[in-house]
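Quick one, T. Sequence first:
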Amino acid sequence: MNDHVRLHCLRHAESENVVTGTAGAQPDAPLTARGRTQATEAGLRLGDEGITHVYAGTAVRARQTAAIVARTLGLTSGVTVVPGLEEVGLGRLEGSRDPAVRARTAEVLRAWVVDGDLDEAVGDGESGHTVTARVTAALTSLVTAHPGGTIAVVGHVASLTTGLGALCGLGGRVWGAPLPHAVPFLVEYGPGRAWRCRNWPGEC
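Structure tokens:
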């Protein structure tokens, strides 16, 4: 049986927490008007890819992006929410607008992705071990459910970079090329349980 799976992954469209510079997972932050337009454009770009289902993390902005993509694709199955795809949690620093917290968040993400140091965390927030484990588990569950299929997955910049960095062995090659809002990129899961990123923005 063909177990080759195509995942069109994308970061959620522009949301209120991005505009305000608010750090952390921010599960209740909605899309902006610009973000809704970006999500529609993403759906149009994916129109010829044969996508059968759209998945999203639990955050409002991810679910809203996924719903617009699914509607634009004309999918009647709607969106399935998958726990584990959420953005990195920052513990007591969640919701901070301090530039120092955002700078520290970038440092920690670099430690995870480039240096492979998963012990690092922002304050008492999640470690790289926790984020990598939950994102890779979520993505693995999706490819297991869709052998031979093509799906779309909406997540977040730091957690997707961390999880896919581990699965695809991206390392420091993707540093400096952060995921733009609502721009799909292709990840493939193929024979031999191999993961491959095909077109990470600026790299794959």
